[in-house]
Amino acid sequence: MPFALDLVRKLHAGGHEVYASDTFASAGGSHSGALAGHFVTASPEHATVQFIDDVEGIVREHEIEMVLPAFEEAFYLATAHDRLDPITTLYTGPFSDLARLHDKGTFQRLAVELGLPAPETVVARSDADLAGAIARWPRWFARAAFSRGGVALLTNTGPLADRMKPEDVHPSDDEPWLVQPFVDGPMNCTYSTLHDGHVTAHCTYAAPRQWHHSTGIEFEAIDGGPSLAIIETLGRHLGYTGQLSFDFVDRGEAGLTLIECNPRPTDGVLLMSPEQLVDGLMNPEQETTMVEPGKLVELSFAVFASMFGDGVRNIPSSIHDLLHVKDPNSGWHDHLPTLYSALSLAHHAKVGWREHKGLFEAMADDMSWDGDPIEGMSAADRRVLDELESTAASG
Fold this sequence. Notes:
By secondary structure, the chain is an alpha+beta fold.
């Protein structure tokens, strides 16, 4: 993930000794000159017990003081807090909080409980549920309760209308879908670091360019005040320590509407300075800092690729941005990750072809969590899953 490589570089720039791991050797970030070492671990998703063993071994051998999740391996690591906390700082919340935030149904209920703005939501657990839910509103939007990165969106409104058909989706008890009224307005995103519920660093950003109207490939910092107030409410309620990211719809004078939470880092990392990011992660007493509006970065390789799929009319603006907008790799003098990125993309393309997944789905292979029981999880964490299922079934 580009923001994972950015975490490595900025922590190194802040004077820290940084180690990284992934589940395959050609991962671009593993070859950064900012690293003191890198490792290949077992899959968090498919071999969780061995993955935790691998992480514990790395922590003990290299006296790692903080383990910083960079994607949804956070869920698997969170089941091992009791095991890892005595020997390191695992910078993520307890599994119970992560699960409740990641499940879009229970997250919506939490938002309502706290008086935060969130759309009405219906949980569909069958084809009949889905049909009944989308009939409630003339304009609607649906997605899996556990999903990420703009993958598998179902709607009858906007640029993604009818890209998927309702008959292509089959919700179940194990794979529920959420249906909501379509909320008008641009999408805003956030990335924050928290300690005991206190927000230490915060970034709110828009995505002026997206890959096929879903995943952002260009990011611009905007005013973070309105979203900060909402995140502070959630953070205080949970007493949360770790990284939190949120998606909102900006309804103008009506304010922000909460859409979903990703309890992990996202592309907002790219907009933070090394000093702001390091202080946010490492200093619990840090007063809240926010990225100034107007800062702009882009994933140049993705902007270039999108030129061939977005139509001729977007080519001039794409060329302008390629020439004038900063890429996260700029200025680091760290070239091996770029060279290895081709191998990494080839790895994910192979995974996608083998498992009939899109590229962005394949990039999350081995480390995504979709609500399933986790190998080796405690009885208490297993009860959390049972409670989530019970809550969804009742609502």
